[in-house]
Design a protein that fits this description.
Blueprint: H1 17-37, E1 51-53, E2 66-71, H2 81-92, E3 97-103, H3 112-131, E4 135-140, H4 143-153, E5 156-162, H5 167-179, E6 186-189, H6 197-200, H7 208-216, H8 219-222, H9 245-250, H10 268-289, H11 302-306, H12 312-319, H13 327-350, H14 362-370, H15 382-386, H16 393-405, H17 410-422, H18 427-441, H19 448-459, H20 480-486, H21 489-496
Parallel strand pairs: 2-3, 2-5, 3-4, 5-6
Antiparallel strand pairs: 1-6
Helix pairs in contact: 4-5, 7-13, 10-13, 12-13, 13-19, 16-21, 17-18, 17-19, 18-19
């Protein structure tokens, strides 16, 4: 019965003294592996295919007084190829190492929820950098606005930056490239993907089927242990400006009514706790139960992955140790964490219209257009959808989960998104609403995986044509009855309290 549904929450790892000791031991084991891999990045054979020189200049000028890692997508110290490469340059040139994070006032439809997770994570990064004699700087404005003069003022010899395939960060990179001094190399390192995006494929891939072998065949070369970022031996001549992280959160131009989430605390150590609890308690059922929203079978790591607070590569290395014990679950997890995630980066990198109907395959554009004028049984406004006020209690419950927890179960995200196509006047409006809601409420919104999820659901990206029907055309269909066959819908509805709202045609 629905009334007997357990009040299941996303896993919040225990904080007892015993559990803290276990996490500390786990963290120490990982650090020991780094140190066994190499004494430092200078003693490690860095794979140069992880690197792209963005500028024309490639050599660090003599007499420079520092190297900068322009941190953006990957907000962590350890297990970060971009950070490691920046330290390598600084050690070779015997100069201080700086980390700059350039913070903009408003980012797409992000709310305070996302800025809070980002900045509280960066507060921990700053503290870790200080212990390693690396200066951390929080600069106001985009990299193109804040960095050019800063680099001149502090005689910086090279800038190393993260890789991000999305339009706005690519624009920051392009703007910075134009404004930087011509003798300062600008170097990009893909620290987010296991196989660098430009190495995995040189074109937009049609589906997981076409990219899977391209990635899996390269894992022996790329899915390797990391060396450590070490205490830096060269000290900066100037101190970083003091940072008030709370004030930085408060001063963003973002919706403050969508506040921080309770179940997920920012930062690498908290990600480590969630990873450990996944491996210890949920990995064994991942293969068979991951599509059941009433069970806690997922890694729940997407918020930390999105902000780069833990490396997907580190998680993959830890999970694959259990391959003999949980073969199917480990294979299923690596498929999702590596192949599917990197397919999303591939799509956004090579498809300019990754968030538009124009980015869909020709068959999908045609079928959606053919059915553009089909009668919709229900039409909802963005406000009604935001408030979870539809006639569908399952959809409403999924929306409430996203509002409250900043995360929606992956299986329900597909159902949720496809219903938006069914209940809005056009595919364009459906895509716009789905992206807005995901970006505004989900901690892991504004991410290639989010855009691809919306595009798969509404535009058939990385999918094929199915039996033709009203509104959807040949785009894959999902319905309430199908969900009932997959899991206990009443149990999920009871947990989040989505009600059936009477539909009044406007």
């Amino acid at each position: 019965m629905a009334s007997s549904a357990k009040k299941l929450k996303l896993s919040t790892p225990s904080t007892t003294t015993e559990s803290k000791t276990k996490i500390d031991d786990f963290a120490n084991q990982i650090q020991k592996r780094r140190e066994e891999t190499a004494e430092s990045i200078l003693k490690y054979k860095f794979n140069k295919k992880r690197v792209r020189i963005i500028s024309q200049e490639q050599m660090v000028a003599d007499g420079c007084e520092g190297i900068v890692y322009w941190m953006s997508r990957d907000s962590r110290v350890q297990d970060n190829w971009a950070f490691l490469f920046a330290q390598k340059l600084a050690l070779k040139n015997e100069v201080p190492l700086h980390v700059c994070f350039c913070l903009i006032a408003k980012y797409l439809d992000a709310s305070v929820r996302q800025f809070h997770f980002l900045l509280k994570g960066l507060e921990k990064v700053a503290a870790e950098c200080k212990k390693l004699n690396i200066s951390f700087h929080l600069l106001e404005g985009s990299g193109a606005e804040a960095l050019p003069q800063w680099i001149i003022d502090h005689k910086i010899g090279a800038v190393v930056c993260d890789f991000n395939p999305l339009r706005v960060p690519m624009g920051w990179l392009e703007g910075a490239k134009k404004k930087f001094k011509k003798n300062v190399p600008l170097i990009q390192v893909d620290a987010h993907n296991v196989v660098p995006c430009w190495v995995a494929s040189d074109k937009q891939e049609y589906s997981a089927r076409t990219i899977r072998n391209k990635i899996n065949s390269k894992l022996d070369e790329y899915l390797t242990e990391f060396p450590p970022v070490i205490k830096h031996p060269y000290t900066s001549k100037f101190e970083p400006e003091p940072i008030d992280f709370d004030e930085a959160i408060e001063s963003r131009e973002a919706d403050k009514s969508v506040g921080p989430i309770e179940w997920a605390a920012p930062g690498y150590e908290n990600a480590l706790k969630v990873m450990k609890s996944f491996i210890d308690t949920r990995l064994k059922i991942f293969a068979t139960k991951r599509n059941d929203p009433t069970l806690d079978a997922l890694s729940n790591l997407s918020p930390w992955f999105h902000f780069g607070q833990i490396s997907v590569q580190r998680v993959a290395l830890c999970v694959q140790e259990y391959k003999k014990k949980y073969t199917e679950s480990v294979n299923a997890y690596l498929e999702e964490a590596i192949v599917r995630r990197e397919l999303a980066d591939n799509f956004c990198f090579y498809c300019e219209n990754y968030d538009s109907i124009k980015g869909a395959s020709a068959w999908a554009q045609k079928t959606l257009d053919d059915h553009r004028k089909d009668k919709r049984t229900h039409i909802y406004t963005l406000e009604q959808l935001s408030k979870a006020e539809t006639h569908d209690d399952l959809w409403n419950s999924a929306q409430i989960q996203m509002i409250k927890e900043g995360k929606m179960h992956g299986f329900l995200r597909m159902y949720w998104c496809k219903k938006i196509l069914e209940w809005t006047p056009s595919p364009e409006e459906a895509l716009k609403y789905a992206i807005y809601l995901n970006d505004h409420y989900s901690v892991d919104g504004r991410d290639p995986s989010g855009y691809v999820g919306c595009m798969w659901s509404i535009c058939g990206i990385h999918d094929q044509g199915w039996a033709e029907r009203a509104v959807f055309g040949k785009v894959r269909y999902m319905n309430y009855e199908g969900c009932k066959r997959k899991f206990q819908v009443p149990a999920f509805v009871a947990r989040y309290g989505g009600k059936v709202h009477k539909y009044i045609k406007k």
